[in-house]
Amino acid sequence: MNAVVLNDRDFLATLADLGIGYSSPSQEASCLAGRLFRTYRDAGGPRSHLIPDFLIAAHASMDCDRLATTDRGYLRKYFPTLPLFGP
User: Fold this and answer.
1) Band of the pLDDT at 3, cuts 50, 70, 90?
2) Cβ–Cβ under 8 Å, residues 67 and 85
3) Cα–Cα–Cα angle for 60, 62, 65, rounded to 5 degrees
4) Cα separations (Å) of 69 from 6, 9, 44, 47, 85?
5) pTM: predicted TM-score of the whole model, two decimal places
6) What rounded mean pLDDT belongs to the chain?
7) Distance CA 59, CA 33 (A)
8) First vs last Cα of the chain: how many Å apart?
9) Phi and psi at residue 22, in whole multiples of 5°?
C-alpha cells in the first residue's frame, strides 16, 4: 500500500476543498474547558479524559459548528448542545 505524502500547502488546499477551516480555540472556549474539566474531576471523573479532550470539545462547542468524534459518552454529559459528526 502506497501512502500519499502531502506537503503543508497541499494539505491546507485539501482541507479547503473539503470545506474544513482551521481556527484556534478562543479564550472563552479555553476557560469553559477548564471549568468543565474541574467539574468532571471534582465529580470523581477518572483521568481517562484529559484537559485536551475538554479543550477540543469546548472549542468545537463555542468556535465551530460541530465535532467529528466516535466518543459520545462524556461529550453528551458535559457538552449536551454540541452537534457531533461521526459514524
Assistant:
1) low
2) yes
3) 55
4) 24, 25, 24, 19, 6
5) 0.74
6) 87
7) 8
8) 25
9) -125, 135
* Distance in angstroms (rounded) separating the CA atoms of residues 42 and 82: 22
Q: Which of 25, 81, 78 minimizes the C-alpha distance to 56?
A: 25
What's the whole-number mean pLDDT along residues 42-58?
Answer: 88
Q: Give the confidence band of 86 by pLDDT, cuts at 50, 70, 90.
A: confident
Residue 2 has pLDDT above 70, yes or no: no
Side-chain half-sphere CA neighbours of 49 within 13 A: 22
DSSP class per residue in the chain: -PPP---HHHHHHHHHHTT----PPPHHHHHHHHHHHHHHHHTT--TTS-HHHHHHHHHHHHHSS-EE-S--HHHHHH-TT--EE--
Exposed / middle / buried, residue 84 (Cβ in 10 Å: 0-12, 13-18, 19+): middle
Q: What pLDDT sits at residue 5?
A: 59
